[in-house]
């Protein structure tokens, strides 16, 4: 059966729901193939190179090897993350596009202090400066009309209801593994002999910046492993 019309889905919520229902019946590989063929304009893939990032990177780049892969380098990533980026970039021959904040870390701290220690408002400002601003600039400079991400419903409560396909302004966001569990991701990694992030074995299930990431053992709960449990999302996927 053919999928519902994309143009109709862009104009009508019911048509978009029908398209997401159709995508729900496809495999992740088939979803990616459909999106690469169908979704308009320049297509990009973002990755934080987190705990299970190799799965999404492999899934998409095996079908389109030259897709731009956006990494936002906040300047505060773990050393293990930078090495993981190098490892996966070489192994998967990624077309990596690294974007950094407009303000350097020393200048930011001189102006604002250690924002991540200033409660929710400070964390929000930190995220806007070091993550949201460079991400929006990356999408604009690359002319992205379609944005592939590895968001999954099982990751956090805030992502529990995400669709496979969303329209944000004039840009499509596509989440081909939205319905995958951690077990699904693990099976894909094993099947394709792909690595977890090096900090996975140390109990880190969600990996961001060094000063706002804790291991599951230290945090006690997956939702509290980022931003001291004060919040979960950094803003990349909610302020677009």
List the helices and strands and how they pair.
Elements: H1 6-11, H2 13-24, H3 28-38, E1 42-46, H4 53-61, E2 68-72, H5 79-92, E3 95-99, H6 105-112, H7 119-141, E4 144-148, E5 165-168, E6 171-174, H8 182-191, H9 216-219
Parallel strand pairs: 1-2, 1-4, 2-3, 4-6
Antiparallel strand pairs: 5-6
In a nutshell, what does this entry contain?
The protein has 240 residues and is of the alpha/beta class. The chain is built from nine helices and six strands; from the N terminus they run αααβαβαβααβββαα. The protein is globular.
Overview of the structural elements:
The structure is a single chain. The longest helix is centred in the middle third of the chain and has 23 residues, at 119-141. This protein has helices spanning 6-11, 13-24, 28-38, 53-61, 79-92, 105-112, 119-141, 182-191, 216-219; strands spanning 42-46, 68-72, 95-99, 144-148, 165-168, 171-174. The protein starts with 5 loop residues before the first helix and ends in a 21-residue tail after the last helix. 40% of the residues lie in helices and 12% in strands. The chain is built from 9 helices and 6 strands; from the N terminus they run αααβαβαβααβββαα. A 6-stranded mixed β-sheet has the order 3-2-1-4-6-5. The chain has one domain: 3-Layer(aba) Sandwich (Rossmann fold). The protein is of the alpha/beta class and 240 residues long.
Structural class by secondary-structure content: alpha/beta
State the strand order across the main sheet.
3-2-1-4-6-5
Low-confidence stretches: none
Give the count of helical stretches: 9
CATH topology: Rossmann fold
Determine and state the CATH class.
Alpha Beta
Global Rg: 18 Å
Strand content: 5-15%
Overall average pLDDT: 91
Number of domains: 1
Describe the global form: globular
| Annotated CATH architecture | 3-Layer(aba) Sandwich
Q: Using DSSP, what is the number of strands?
A: 6
CATH homologous superfamily heading: HUPs
H/E element sequence:
HHHEHEHEHHEEEHH
Percent range of helical residues:
40-55%
| Ends distance | 32 Å
